[in-house]
Design a protein that fits this description.
The protein is mainly α and 154 residues long. The chain is built from 6 helices and 3 strands; from the N terminus they run H-E-H-H-H-E-E-H-H. The protein has one domain: 50s Ribosomal Protein L17, Chain: A (Alpha-Beta Complex), CATH 3.90.1030. The chain has a 3-stranded antiparallel sheet, with helices on one face.
Length: 154
């Protein structure tokens, strides 16, 4: 017998988790690309894939069903007019998750989730999770030297 693998709880209550995923889905539709933690990105992918599949039908019923989870008129309008027309011929796989360096503060695994056909060319520079210590520490010699050359250049 097939057992269903449970979804991630994301350290939230059910209502808070639903609101978080709804908000992330809305932002993904509006901005086409968002940066979040890897776990949230994977859960958002499940939600947004189902939403886009429903939107491909183009019916009023589909609009109402989607509006239950995406409570933003502009995002739903953009979904039906712009996004579905661009990725309507695709049979799933509407999103892509790109893993990034861990977050500096708490070392959380970070990722970018984006709509596939809206992807821009990824930047060539690798993102570094660590900062130069001289930039973080006030009064260091490197910081003072950089400030002196900047003020001399003016």
């Amino acid at each position: 017998m097939r057992k269903v693998k449970p979804a991630r709880k994301l350290g939230r209550t059910a209502a808070h988790r639903k609101a978080t995923l709804s908000n992330l889905s809305t932002q993904l539709l509006v901005y086409k690309r968002i940066e979040t933690t890897e776990a949230k990105a994977k859960e958002t992918r499940k939600v947004i894939e189902k939403i886009i599949t429903k939107a491909r039908k183009g019916t009023v019923h589909a609009q109402r069903e989607i509006f239950k989870s995406i409570r933003d008129k502009d995002a739903v309008k953009m979904l039906f007019e712009e996004i579905v027309s661009k990725i309507g011929d695709r049979n799933g796989g509407y999103t892509r998750i790109i893993k990034l360096a861990p977050r500096f503060g708490d070392a959380a695994k970070m990722a970018v989730i984006e709509l596939v056909d809206y992807a821009e060319a990824p930047s060539k520079q690798p993102q570094s999770g660590k900062q130069d210590r001289a930039k973080r520490v006030k009064g260091s010699k490197k910081t003072e030297a950089a400030a002196a050359t900047a003020s001399a250049g003016e």
